[in-house]
What does this fold into?
Amino acid sequence: MLALVCLLLTTTVLGEKIIDFEIYDATPANFSVGPLLSSGVREKKIILLKTHAGAEKNFTITPSGILKTKTTIDREAICPNKAECNMTLEAGILPAENFQSLTINLKIRDVNDNTPRFPFGRIKVKFSEAAEPGDYVTIPPASDPDSPRYSVQRYVLRNAVDRFNNKIFIHKLIKNKNVGLENLRIILNSRLDRELIESYTLQILAIDGGDSRRTGTLKVSVIVEDANDHEPVFKQSVYKATVLENITKNTPIVQVSASDKDSGDNGKVSYSWNSRTEQNYANTFRIDSKNGTIFPIVPLDFEDVQEYELYVLGTDSGSSPRFSQTKVIINLEDVNDNVPDVQIITLHDDRGYASVEENSKIGSFVAHVSITDQDFGDNGRVKCVIDDNVPFAMESGLEKQYQIVTTKQLNREKQSQYLITLKCKDFGKIPNVADRLIDVRVLDLNDNSPAFQEIKDHRGKILKKDQLQVAENASIGHVIARIRATDPDEGRNGSVIYTLKQIDRVSERLLEIDRRSGIIRVSKNLDREKYGRIRIRVKASDEGLVSKHTSIKLTVKILDVDDNLPKFGQESYEKSVYENRPIGTFVVLVSANDDDVKDKEVQLRFSRPQDYQIFDMDESGRITTKQIFDRQGPI
It folds into this structure.
């Protein structure tokens, strides 16, 4: 069967959208009723907020925003005894920044998928042979749960003639429009002669409406005898009763009563449901067959059904039983027996908490709150509030729909989590209250740069930035210092890495830094005589998508080690002195230097001790005579 779907989309105030669909009864499961989103906006998400009773059993919304059937649609089960079948679903369209409410109106059009049914497949009735034309017996009519257009439209009586082709019986449908009751009568059209014909076998056809009509059949055996000629008569054509919805099981609600003028078994009346009531409500109410008292056998719920319409058959006990029917209306009064049902929808339902980015503008979406209270009137009216001491507020839109939004910009580094108490209370005389705890997490933004904290040497001593030093003979890998920077942001936004750059124009990369630990090490052999100090810039960067960084300039002093030999100004000195010159005569000035820092003033001395007997040398390297020389004499 093809299902016709009609779509009408309108927009009203407060961002509410309304979509109307029509589908046919018996539409199969997994049938696409229609899209809930316009083309081009498939990235949006639709969530179901609340539904007409039973709608969630029959319909679902796919992740792509398609409304589909979950089961084969049974209009008669969804809307029993209703001429029109309409239901409403409430949904919400995310993302939160453009949250919209969506009302989906579904109309289920009936199809003729039910055959008229009589309470019995075969019955036996009796007419007295003394009966007069116009006398009748009443039989319960057929029922068809389809809508009025496709329910029973007419009856046809067959085999109602005798052997002489005389029309012995006719039928007539009696309707009481005031109370909605029907009785089907088989009416005697001609006198009976039991000696000629003792019985008749009739067929009554119940034919429903629609193009493809369905027919139910009842076989009626008519026995001709002196029989029951009165049908039961109820004291009231309609019985009404009103009870609280929390009435306990098996508590009497109402009693129906019928009398029969016949005597004996012909006047003894028993009570039962008609076929439609038996089908719809036999699991909800029971009737005492002897005294007509009606009891509930399950808990009743005003939120599911506010009024019950029952039909009771009064049947006498004659050999050819007669029937009559009465209507019973039971109204339920609401009791505030439902606590508000609070549904909290967040951007990340699967995580179990709500979230909002720090520094988001005031009024940013945090969560959607949908309240359902199945009670009616003030019992079903609900007001929700949250704590006063939190930077959030509740904004109301549609009835029983709220949004929780921010009232100020949040700073995750000051407070990363809020626990909000939500209270929803109805307006009943004895109100019901629902409490919910909403966990709100403040999501981190990379809004902080790393900050340097301290510098320590390899022994853990805290240094100033100009106190770094290393001996020139330090081995490769020697730890000079450890630098530490912190970033209060979270995750990669707060994860710090380090880089090092030499400021001086040095062709060799003498120092290096571990990018994670901040440890500065020697990476090449050092020579104080080439570089007395090394100026570096250390940069601490976080690992956010848009990284932030901080730099610091450091100076590493290279400490001297005595690793150079003194050098004379000349490889050799040759000087002459005249004989007979006085003691203290200047001979030569000897000079030597050392590249090491500590040995700039080199100590000079004669390598042979005996030279001190002939010459003298001061600290400056000035050599003078200690005796008068005679060229002809010994030295």
